[in-house]
Automatic annotation (TrEMBL):
One GO CC term, this protein: outer membrane-bounded periplasmic space
Organism listed in the record: Chitinophaga silvisoli
One Pfam family it belongs to: Peptidase_S41
Record's keyword annotation contains Cytoplasm: no
Name of the featured protein: S41 family peptidase
Domain PDZ: 92-162
Family, per entry: Belongs to the peptidase S41A family.
SUPFAM superfamilies reported for this sequence: ClpP/crotonase (SSF52096), PDZ domain-like (SSF50156)
InterPro entries tied to this protein: ClpP/crotonase-like_dom_sf (IPR029045), PDZ (IPR001478), PDZ_sf (IPR036034), Peptidase_S41A (IPR004447), Tail-specific_protease (IPR005151)
Keywords from the named record: Hydrolase, Protease, Serine protease
Keyword NADP applies: no
A single GO BP: proteolysis
Length: 536
C-alpha cells in the first residue's frame, strides 16, 4: 500500500475502532454507574479495598494507611486459627534470620546495664574476634552515634551494628579505661539451633535442639558424627522449650532415627491433598536406645519428631505434655514488604493423630492454655492431664498414645515448683545471675584457665563460699528482697545457676546445658531408662 493511501485509510480505521469501543463500553455492566471497566470485565475490588480507597481520598484528616491496613489484616486473621499471622515489614528480616539460621553483622553477644553496652561474648572466628574485640569491652560509639549513656536500646544497637557482609563499621570500645577505635568488617554470623552436644556417660550422648531452622539438619548430623566418634551407643534428644520451625528439618532428623520407609507424618488441608512424608534413606541412628525430652514449650516440629518416635515405639518420651500445635503454615510475601504466614494444612502423626489443641474459644483462651494447665495441677500431677483424644491408638508394643492436645509423654516428670521461690523468681526477673556472673568473670578470668573444656569444669568446679557471699551482697544492692532468709533449696538453686551461667560465659550454651543437666530430674530419668535398655 502506498504512503498516500495509508494516510487516507488510517484515520478512517481509527474512527471505526473508536466508535466500536464507545458502543461496547456503553453496553458494558456498570457503564452508567461511573464504575471503571477493563477490557470486557469489571474489576471487583471488594468492600474492604473500597473502604480503604475512600478513607485515603475522602476522609477529613490525613491517616496512616499502613497502620490501618495492618489492623485490618490482623482483624481478619483473628477469626482464624492462632497461628495464621501477619508479619509487618519491620519484623520480617528478623523472623527470616531466625529460621534461615544466620544474619549479617559483627558477631558479638551483648547486654545493656547501667546504660552501657557490654560485650559478654565474641563468636569464635567471627568478624569481631578477627578485629580484636574482647569479652568485657564496652561499646561507646558506633560510627558517628554515641551509644554509651544515651538511653540506648537493644534494637537500636542491633540496627547500628548489623549490615551487609563486607561492609565496615567503626566501633569505639572502652577496655581497661582506655578508648580503642576498632574497624570491623561485617560477615555472615551463624544462628545455631543445636545448643549443645556432648557425652553424658561413656555410652550416652546428648543433643539439645532449640529450634528447627534451615541449618538444623546439618548441625544435627555434625553433632551425631562427633558423638559417634566418642563411641556413643545411646542418645538423648532434648526438645524442651523448642517452639518448632521448618517441617523439613524435623522429618529429615526423624529419617535418621527410623528404619525402612516408615511414615513420619502426613499433611492435608482444603487446598492441599494428603501428602505423606516417609523415610527415604538409611539413617545414622536407627537402632540405638533413644529418649526424647519434652515439656509444655515443645511445639510443632518438635511434636512431629516426638510423635513419630512414639508411634513407632522407637524411643521413650520423657517429661511433660507438649504444646499441642498440629497446623502447617506457609509464608507468602506481600507487596508492602511484609508477609502472611497462613495455616494451609493439618499434620497427623503416623497413627493418624492430630495433636492440635482446640482453639474454638478464641485466641485469648488459646494463649492461656499453658497457664491453665499449671493452675489445675498438670505440671505436677500426671493424673491432672486432660486431653480431648482424637484417635484411640495402641502402638505395636501395646502403649496407648493420645492426640488432641499435644504429645503425652511415656514417663511423666513433674515441674519442680520449689525451685522458684519469690526470692529466686526476683533474681531471675532482674537478670541478677547473668549480670553478676559477667562482672565476676571479667575480674577473675585467670581463675578459669585451668579448665580445658566445659566437661572438666562441670565435673570439677564447685561454687566457692566467696562467690555465694559476693552474689548475695550484689542481690541485696539490687534491691532483691528476702536474700537474708534463703532456704536450703534456694541456696542449691543459686549454686547450680551460678555454675551454669559461668559455664555459658566461657563455653556458650554447650557449657550451660552440660552444667545445668548435671542436676536435672528429666536427664537423670533419661539416663536411668537408657542404662536399662539394650541396643537392638
Amino acid at each position: 500500500m502506498s504512503n498516500r493511501k495509508l494516510n487516507v485509510f488510517l484515520p478512517l480505521l481509527l474512527a471505526v475502532v473508536l466508535a466500536l469501543g464507545m458502543y461496547l463500553g456503553h453496553k458494558m455492566p456498570g457503564s452508567n454507574t461511573g464504575a471503571q471497566t477493563l477490557l470486557f470485565s469489571r474489576v471487583d475490588r471488594g468492600p474492604l479495598q473500597e473502604v480503604m480507597d475512600l478513607l485515603k481520598v475522602k476522609y477529613v484528616d490525613t491517616l496512616k494507611l499502613g497502620d490501618l491496613q495492618q489492623e485490618a489484616i490482623e482483624g481478619l486473621l483473628s477469626h482464624l486459627d492462632p497461628h495464621s499471622i501477619y508479619i509487618p515489614p519491620s519484623s520480617l528480616e528478623e523472623v527470616n534470620e531466625d529460621l534461615d539460621g544466620n544474619f549479617q553483622g559483627i558477631g558479638v553477644e551483648f547486654n545493656i546495664t547501667a546504660d552501657t553496652v557490654n560485650v559478654i561474648s565474641v563468636i569464635a572466628g567471627g568478624p569481631s574476634e578477627t578485629a580484636g574485640v574482647q569479652t568485657g569491652d564496652k561499646i561507646i560509639r558506633v560510627n558517628d552515634s554515641l551509644v554509651a549513656g544515651n538511653n540506648i536500646t537493644s534494637d537500636k544497637i542491633r540496627q547500628l551494628l548489623r549490615g551487609p557482609k563486607g561492609s565496615k563499621v567503626n566501633v569505639t570500645m572502652m577496655r581497661s579505661r582506655k578508648l580503642l577505635p576498632i574497624q570491623i568488617t561485617r560477615g555472615i554470623i551463624p544462628l545455631y539451633s543445636i545448643d549443645a552436644s556432648y557425652m553424658v556417660t561413656p555410652e550416652i550422648g546428648y543433643i539439645k535442639i532449640s529450634k528447627f531452622s534451615g541449618t538444623t539438619f546439618d548441625e544435627f548430623m555434625a553433632a551425631m558424627r562427633k558423638l559417634e566418634k566418642q563411641q556413643m551407643k545411646k542418645l538423648v534428644i532434648d526438645l524442651r522449650q523448642n517452639p518448632g520451625g521448618y517441617l523439613d528439618a524435623a522429618t529429615r532428623i526423624a529419617d535418621e532415627l527410623l528404619d525402612d520407609n516408615k511414615l513420619i507424618l502426613y499433611t492435608k488441608g482444603k487446598s492441599y491433598p494428603r501428602t505423606d512424608y516417609k523415610c527415604e534413606k538409611p539413617g545414622l541412628f536407627e537402632h540405638g536406645a533413644l529418649a526424647i525430652l519434652t515439656d509444655e514449650g515443645s511445639a510443632s516440629a518438635s511434636e512431629i519428631l516426638a510423635g513419630a518416635v512414639q508411634d513407632w515405639d522407637r524411643g521413650t518420651i520423657i517429661g511433660r505434655r507438649t504444646f499441642g500445635k498440629g497446623l502447617v503454615q506457609e509464608q507468602f510475601d506481600l507487596s508492602n514488604g511484609g508477609a502472611l504466614r497462613l495455616t494451609v494444612a493439618r499434620y497427623y502423626t503416623p497413627s493418624g493423630r492430630s495433636i492440635q489443641k482446640s482453639y474454638a474459644n478464641g485466641r485469648e483462651a488459646y494463649d492461656e492454655d499453658i497457664l491453665n494447665r499449671f493452675n489445675h495441677g498438670e505440671f505436677v500431677n500426671q493424673d491432672s492431664i486432660k486431653v480431648l483424644d482424637t484417635v484411640k491408638y495402641k502402638t505395636a508394643k501395646g502403649r496407648v498414645v493420645y492426640g488432641g492436645g499435644g504429645i503425652t509423654p511415656d514417663i511423666f516428670i513433674p515441674f519442680d515448683t520449689s525451685r522458684f521461690s519469690p526470692v529466686i523468681s526476683s533474681m531471675y526477673s532482674r537478670s541478677a545471675f547473668s549480670n553478676f556472673v559477667y562482672q565476676y568473670y571479667i575480674s577473675h578470668k585467670d581463675e578459669f584457665k585451668q579448665y580445658k573444656d566445659a566437661s572438666q569444669f562441670v565435673n570439677q568446679y564447685q561454687v566457692p563460699a566467696g562467690i555465694m557471699s559476693a552474689f548475695k551482697s550484689y542481690a541485696e544492692r539490687d534491691s532483691i528482697k528476702g536474700v537474708g532468709g534463703l532456704k536450703p533449696h534456694d541456696e542449691v538453686e543459686i549454686q547450680n545457676r551460678l555454675k551454669a551461667i559461668l559455664a555459658r560465659q566461657i563455653w556458650s550454651y554447650e557449657g550451660y546445658w552440660e552444667s545445668l543437666n548435671q542436676n536435672d530430674e528429666m536427664m537423670k530419668k533419661a539416663i536411668d531408662v537408657l542404662n536399662k535398655e539394650n541396643n537392638d
